[in-house]
């Protein structure tokens, strides 16, 4: 599932959401990767069979995505992940969230959790 918060896609977002308690894995790819990567699909497939859900955060400009803002991908910045986690908590309020990152994605995940002392993601 791909989610776009660009203008014109608001109707897609309104249909999402669930009140179940399935575990949700938030996954960050490696440098210049994306949700299309084979390594991500190999890790996520068995989890889907066990009832998990997943959200892969594609970094700005990666995975052939268009850059639609004034901000570019920054490996040190965690704001995109923070916004995704905030959104997931609103749309799937009962789902426990887990995080996994590959290579640079793992670094971003660790930095983000270290910076969020009040409410880590």
Shape summary: globular
Beta content comes to 5-15%
The total count of helices amounts to 4
Distance between the termini: 21 Å
One letter per element, helices H and strands E, the order comes to HEHEHEH
- Overall SS class: alpha/beta
The spatial strand order of the largest sheet comes to 2-1-3
Range of helix content: 25-40%
Written description of the protein model:
This protein has helices at residues 10-14, 38-49, 79-91, 104-115; strands at 24-28, 53-57, 97-101. Strand 1 (24-28), helix 2 and strand 2 (53-57) form a beta-alpha-beta unit. By secondary structure, the chain is α/β, with parallel strands linked by helices. The protein has a three-stranded parallel sheet, sandwiched between helices.
Describe the structure using short key phrases.
121 residues; alpha/beta; three-stranded parallel beta sheet; 3 strands
Short structural description:
The protein has helices at 10-14, 38-49, 79-91, 104-115; strands spanning 24-28, 53-57, 97-101. With 121 residues, it is an alpha/beta fold. Strand 1 (24-28), helix 2 (38-49) and strand 2 form a beta-alpha-beta unit.
Write the layout of secondary structure elements.
Blueprint: H1 10-14, E1 24-28, H2 38-49, E2 53-57, H3 79-91, E3 97-101, H4 104-115
Parallel strand pairs: 1-2, 1-3
């Amino acid at each position: 599932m791909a989610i776009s918060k660009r203008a014109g896609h608001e109707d897609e977002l309104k249909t999402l959401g669930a009140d179940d308690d399935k575990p949700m894995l938030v996954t960050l790819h490696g440098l210049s990767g994306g949700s299309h990567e084979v390594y991500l699909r190999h890790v996520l497939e068995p989890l889907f069979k066990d009832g998990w859900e997943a959200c892969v955060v594609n970094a700005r400009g990666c995975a052939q995505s268009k850059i639609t803002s004034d901000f570019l991908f920054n490996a040190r910045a965690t704001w995109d992940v923070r916004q995704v986690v905030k959104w997931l908590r609103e749309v799937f309020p009962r789902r426990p969230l887990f995080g996994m990152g590959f290579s640079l994605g793992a670094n971003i995940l660790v930095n983000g959790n270290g910076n969020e002392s009040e409410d880590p993601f």
